[in-house]
Amino acid sequence: MATAFKAFINSPVGPKTTHFWGPVSNWGFILAGMADMNKPPELISGRMTAVMCVYSGLFMRFAWVVRPRNYFLMATHASNESVQLYQLSRYARVQGYLEKKEDKDQQ
């Protein structure tokens, strides 16, 4: 047990590196997004939420290609992507982007 813990502490993605603390700090985005789920969707910034989706998508790719592969960073950004896509869907629904459009033939 102590050997496994020591190996984690000294690993290339352990708590002595930015490969660990970067993802930890990004959990603030996820927690903020989850807290915003209780707020009215009219307050959501569509542009900022879309930017957060692109940001997390890009960093998921980065986490996959960087050596050593950083699964913690990838999981963090996958979680953020999920939260932000949900918020973006709430924004789109309120703005009327997700309404069903009637065919002109039925009118």
From TrEMBL:
GO terms under cellular component: mitochondrial inner membrane
Transmembrane segments: 44-64
Keywords associated with the record: Membrane, Mitochondrion, Mitochondrion inner membrane, Transmembrane, Transmembrane helix, Transport
Membrane topology value: Multi-pass membrane protein
Gene Ontology MF terms: pyruvate transmembrane transporter activity
InterPro entries named in the record: MPC (IPR005336)
UniProt entry tagged with the keyword Lyase: no
Example of a GO biological process term: pyruvate import into mitochondria
Subcellular location per the Swiss-Prot or TrEMBL entry: Mitochondrion inner membrane
Role of this protein: Mediates the uptake of pyruvate into mitochondria.
Annotated family: Belongs to the mitochondrial pyruvate carrier (MPC) (TC 2.A.105) family.
Xref: PANTHER family: UPF0041 BRAIN PROTEIN 44-RELATED (PTHR14154)
Record-given protein name: Mitochondrial pyruvate carrier
